[in-house]
Backbone:
């Protein structure tokens, strides 16, 4: 569950969000554009993990997002897997100009199933939407897939800043709704727990006999 605070602090919710996906799909570019409004055509591959913070308004709530950028190479998977713990939501990125990165989404979903708690919200994000001329994964194909997996989907471009803000605001809104639902569900379960009737006196043994002072049979 997320941390929820009263109105006298700087935020109402604190969410840990992981960005995962194949190496080179643009995970770092999304993080840098969202947190610093910065874009570069040249990024070094992330080694292990990195994270940035940003607080945003979602409807009437202030949400502080701790966004983790994870390495996509197989050699870092053992290291990255430990950072799934405690994640409130996961963003899976793939490159719309790279068919393999789309095919590998299933593998990333398996990683989430393995390391995250059940019902962790997941958002599917297609990157590099500015490169429509190089597109190899059609929108209809992606939509059919995302619907079959019950995933929300959005296409983004870190270069043009298309849908970057919308991506995180939409996902944070989902996390708020999910968090509130889980809290209500937990409280309901606590209320519905059966009460154990502890009696002041136990029922006496009504059968059995004793012969002499020390020998009894029941």
Residues:
């Amino acid at each position: 569950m997320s941390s929820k605070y009263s109105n006298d602090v700087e935020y109402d919710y604190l969410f840990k969000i992981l960005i995962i996906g194949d190496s080179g799909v643009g995970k770092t570019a999304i993080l840098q554009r969202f947190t610093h409004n910065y874009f570069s055509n040249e990024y070094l591959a992330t080694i292990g993990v990195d994270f940035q913070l940003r607080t945003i308004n979602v409807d009437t709530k202030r949400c502080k997002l701790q966004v983790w950028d994870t390495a996509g190479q197989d050699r870092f998977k053992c290291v990255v897997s430990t950072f799934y713990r405690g994640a409130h939501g996961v963003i899976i990125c793939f490159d719309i100009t790279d068919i393999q990165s789309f095919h590998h989404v299933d593998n990333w979903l398996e990683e989430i199933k393995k390391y995250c708690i059940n019902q962790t919200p997941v958002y599917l994000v297609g990157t590099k939407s500015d490169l429509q001329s190089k597109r190899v994964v059609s929108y209809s194909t992606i939509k059919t897939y995302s619907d079959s997996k019950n995933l929300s989907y959005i296409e983004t471009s870190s270069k043009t800043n298309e849908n970057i803000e919308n991506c995180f605001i939409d996902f944070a809104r989902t996390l708020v709704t999910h968090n509130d639902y889980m809290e209500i569900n937990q409280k309901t379960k606590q209320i519905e727990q059966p009460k154990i009737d502890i009696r002041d006196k136990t029922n006496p043994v009504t059968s059995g006999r004793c012969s002499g002072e020390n020998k009894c049979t029941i």
Remarks:
- Strands lie at 3-4, 13-21, 49-58, 61-70, 89-95, 122-127, 152-155, 209-211, 215-217.
- Residues 164-192 form the longest helix (29 residues).
- The chain is about 30% helix and 25% strand.
